[in-house]
Amino acid sequence: MFENAFNNIDRALRNDEGLGSELDYAEQTSWLLFLKYLDDLETERRDEAELEGKDYSPIVSPAYSWKTWAAPKTADGKLDHNAALTGADLIDFVNGKLFPYLKKFRESTDNPDSLDYKIGEIFSEIGNKFRSGYSLRDALEIVDQLDFGSQKAKHELSDLYETRIKRMGNAGRNGGEYYTPRPLIRAMIKVTDPKIGETIYDGACGSAGFLCEAWQYLRRDDLSASDWATLQRRTFYGQEKKSLAYVLGVMNMILHGIEAPSIRHTNTLTENVMDIQERDRHDIVLANPPFGGGERKEVQQNFPIKSGETAYLFLQHFMRKLRAGGRGAVVIKNTFLSNTDGASVALRKELLESCNLHTVLDCPGGTFQGAGVKTVVLFFEKGSKTRSVWYYQLDPGRSLGKTNPLNDADLAEFVALQPGREDSAQSWSVDVADMDAETWDLSVKNSNAPEAAPLRAPAEIIDTMLARDAETAQILEDIRGML
After folding, report:
1. DSSP 3-state assignment of 250?
2. Which segments of the protein form a coiled coil according to its record (predicted)?
3. Are residues 98 and 27 in the same domain?
4. Which pLDDT score, from 0 to 100, does residue 450 have?
């Protein structure tokens, strides 16, 4: 039922001339789903209050509630077409009244982790792109059929939403910024092995894939009320700079079952890393930060190692956000391991001296669809120097792409070998004492792979070709003599 509903939503979106890409579809679906979720949550809270004999004060005033403008019902529970806005009236209400009302929620609270603040933040950062009130009415009627009232329903909806985010990532470069292959995330989580009571942080959380997968890893049906409350309110923390990604992340976590996600809409890199206090730190960092240039000079002043490479700034941030003994797993371009510029060398040195970089996972080309670069995953623990680095060179035995993506089976051997850091055809260890102290080069060089035959000199190749030509000419002459 949910899959059919999502397909029908797509059809309604494609019929509107204001929506032209998968990014638009994801954004507009998100605010519709959020308001329907909010209405179902309010209904659930109202029912709980009535059972306890308490009054309930709704978050959204009745004039702007989902049941009033999006899905007014008749006494028999069917859509009241006489009360339901449509056409230009619907667009005028959404743009002129609903969105301005919802934006004001951010002003009513100073707590960025509260649901009220999330409402204001979301509707301050995105806008309605529907131009046709008839297309919007079609979408509203489909979304109204969705039910957020059970964990099973949320699980199905979260799977569909993840598929949408993945499709958005496959659609182009910008969408790809928000999607990290889930099998890779799951492997990173298995290696870091979070426990209930530990905090998990992603300062470049995008669509919150790491936080959602960590939630799936930790949640169980037999959790105590105390553990459940810990997972809901005191475990997952994220920050995201871009508006669309922030909305996707909040909605993704909500659909996975986190009622008020602790995701903040902010540029993580504007925080001076020297100002990070113990109360700001976390037990686990899981992240795939953006790479490339883009941050202003004044932002670079927040870091001891100045760099125009955004990922280098994030890595410094993550190292300082970890508590002593904390574990990190961070995706970064593989050129970080060998670049000889001052920032790269200094950052590798700091990483090796302030953390135990125990594992480097070398990912094959095509792991990140459309990225065009090779990546590695750095696994490290805060608080002790690195003495030995264990490398694993992932080789799925095929070319990765849209129709043949990375899967969990591809990473099974890595996950199995990593705890013991065993040597194999794909894995080996390097002692830091054997590294060049001038460059701290961490390049992936598989000492267990068979050595390639040395290339022949050009003159030798030419001599061989001439000899074979002469041999061929002699054979042809012998055949001529036999005729």
Report:
1. helix
2. none
3. yes
4. 54
| Token duo for residue 427 | 């894995």
Which stretch of DSSP H or E encloses residue 359?
strand 355-362
The span from the CA of 346 to the CA of 349, in Å, is: 5
Domain encompassing residue 52: 2-149
Residues 119, 203 share a domain: no
Burial 440-473 (b: 16+ CB within 10 A, else e): bbbebeeeeeeeeeeeeeeeeeeeeeeeeeeeee
Domain harbouring 190, CATH code = 3.40.50.150
Token digits of residue 416: 């199995």
CA distance 59 to 239: 24
Task: Let me know if residue 443 belongs to a domain.
Answer: no
* pLDDT value of residue 91: 97
Position 451 scores a pLDDT of 52
The answer to whether the CB of 134 falls within 8 A of the CB of 91 is no
- Residue ranges of the chain with per-residue pLDDT less than 70: 1, 169-178, 293-294, 370-372, 449-456
Confidence (pTM): 0.85
Cα–Cα nearest to 375, from 199, 176, 205, 200: 176
Q: pLDDT at position 215, please? A: 96
Q: Are residues 244 and 137 in the same domain?
A: no
User: Does residue 284 share a domain with residue 191?
Assistant: yes
- Residues 6 or more apart whose CB falls under 8 angstroms from that of 268 comprise 203, 204, 239, 241, 314, 317
In angstroms, the CA 391 to CA 363 distance is: 11
Residues 79, 117: contact at Cβ < 8 Å? no
Query: What is the pLDDT at residue 175?
Result: 45
* Cα separation, 255 vs 444, whole angstroms: 39
Q: Are residues 122 and 194 in the same domain?
A: no
Which residues have C-beta within 8 Å of that of residue 85, sequence separation ≥ 6? Answer: 69, 93, 133, 137
CA-closest candidate to residue 414, choices 465, 344, 364: 364
**CA nearest to 346, candidates 374, 306, 381, 375:** 306
Q: How many whole angstroms separate alpha carbon 286 and alpha carbon 202?
A: 6
Residue 446 belongs to a domain: no
In Å, how far from its chain's centre is CA 131? 30
Please report, for the domain that includes residue 90, its CATH number: 1.20.1260.30
What distance in Å separates the CA atoms of residue 266 and residue 258, rounded to the nearest whole number?
20
Compute CA 239 distance to the chain's CA centroid, rounded to the nearest angstrom: 11
pLDDT at residue 453 in the model: 46
Does residue 359 fall inside a structural domain? yes
Looking up tokens 């686990």 gives 284
